[in-house]
Amino acid sequence: MSETVVIALDVGGTGMKCALVRPDGAVHHEERHPTRAERGPETVTENILSIAEGLAGRARADGLTPVAAGIAVPGVVDEASGVAVWSSNVGFRDVPLRDLAARRLQLPVALGHDVRVGALAEARLGAGRGRRHVLFVAIGTGIASGLVVDGAGYSGAHGAAGEIGHVTVRPGGQPCGCGLRGCLETEASARAIGRRYAELTGESGATAFDVATRAAAGEQLAAQVWRDAIEALADGLLTAQALYDVGVVVLGGGLAEARDGLLTPVREAFARRVTFHRTPEIVRAELGDTAGCLGSALLALDCLGTLA
Ligand SMILES: [Zn+2]
Description:
- The protein is an alpha/beta fold.
- It contains nine helices and 13 strands.
- Strands 3-2-1-4-8 form a five-stranded mixed sheet. A five-stranded mixed sheet has the order 11-10-9-12-13, with helices on both faces. Strands 5-6-7 form a three-stranded antiparallel sheet.
- Helix 1 packs parallel to helix 2 (97-105), helix 3 (114-124) packs across helix 9 (291-307) and helix 5 (190-201) packs antiparallel against helix 7.
- The structure holds zinc ion (ZN).
């Protein structure tokens, strides 16, 4: 029998990262496609199925045997039943994506949540390698997290675990899209940082990365905005540590591009808050925007394990 690969798709609000991955985690082939969420969930679903089919064909053309597929999507995902329950940016409402893909591909398929599978990849192949308890926190437009214990992700009773972005860190603060106020996401996400900086300076268009760069260069308003965000982030991480007591916190997403400009002050702000907590290592993600795709591949490999 020829060598095997799994089909991996990470479906985001704007783009899909897709790959053929070998059992050892090596990427054989990669491609990217637009999600075209504006065309509606039926079109997105059909897109996903035909791209997965195309990848299976590509594998066979390369003399490889596709043995399973993993698909990661954003929103609320019921991994156990393989249903994309709800997603604001892709528009899914109770789409039985796992079974649809399994039927189309005639292969076992696993469905996962984008940030939770990213966490899986960072825990097993990236910055959390060799650690038993890993919390991955993705800080971009929003903030979400994934807890991985002994190499397995935790998804919760309803597929909604890890929403650290909606932990209240500033009671009565900015309104959040979720309906609450003062959520971590409204105080420390890349979008929140850009918005706050624009409010204070009247200059719109500066990204969170720009704010970090200007803060490092000594610009006062940028430093203030950056510091406020770091303090809020440390509050959120302290809550997470009180709940999970992890060995390592892996910070990813766009904000982690600020590297030590993020890590150093977050570690300091965290250390100032610690009382009974055990301090985790706080490190930067290693896999960048391929984490979701690699994590989907791991899910696919894991589902073969449970079927064997
Ligand atoms: Zn919220």
